Amino acid sequence: MSTSQTGDFNLSLTADGSTEETITALVEIVQEQQRELEQLREELAETQAAVDNERAERTKDIAEDRKRLTDVEERLDAVEEGGSPDESPTPDGHDNGSSTPSTPLERVCAFDDDVADRELTANQSRARFVAQDVTDYADKVPAGYSIRSGDIATVLRAGTDSKGRTQTVARVMDFLDSLGGDGVDVVERRGTKRVVFTEEAARRLERLGETSSPSGNHGVVIGGEV
């Protein structure tokens, strides 16, 4: 094709608008891609901000839980130090038929209800409520007694002011684990978290609960009605 013919061809493309339309379409595509890219960048920034906020909240929650644990242990010490001098344990290690508390959880369970209401936070009181009658709620297993997170939620809904929300149950399980010493562990089996009490720990908590709350198991029955 001669030069003049090529020029005529280009002129004809420009004249009928096909080249301009193609360029315009390409520009619009690029602009749309730029808008989508900018939107993705904004969404990424929002997601990162949400992740950062969630991480900060969790860090704050952990710090608050640790502070609450420290506070309750200090209050436990203060309450015990302020008790009557006549309240020393008998030589066989029992006081009025109940075991002498040896862990923070046992000491919490040994509180009178009035003292517990005054000294404990809401979730600490809920952990105490579960621990005092754990032999009634938990399944007997080779390691001792095991209670599932779902059953803890049921106990809390039936016997306390809690609605048994997942976060509340997790906090209660953390307190049981942290305050229970070697006698209490939180484990996860087949995707379900459970609190496992040794036989000795469960029986000691039961005896202490009977002394501090003579009403027994608070009328809570797993799978039944209050």
UniProtKB/TrEMBL annotation:
Residues 52-78 have a biased composition (Basic and acidic residues). Residues 1-20, 45-105, 207-226 are annotated as: Disordered. It comes from the Archaea. This is Uncharacterized protein. It comes from Halorubrum ezzemoulense (Halorubrum chaoviator).
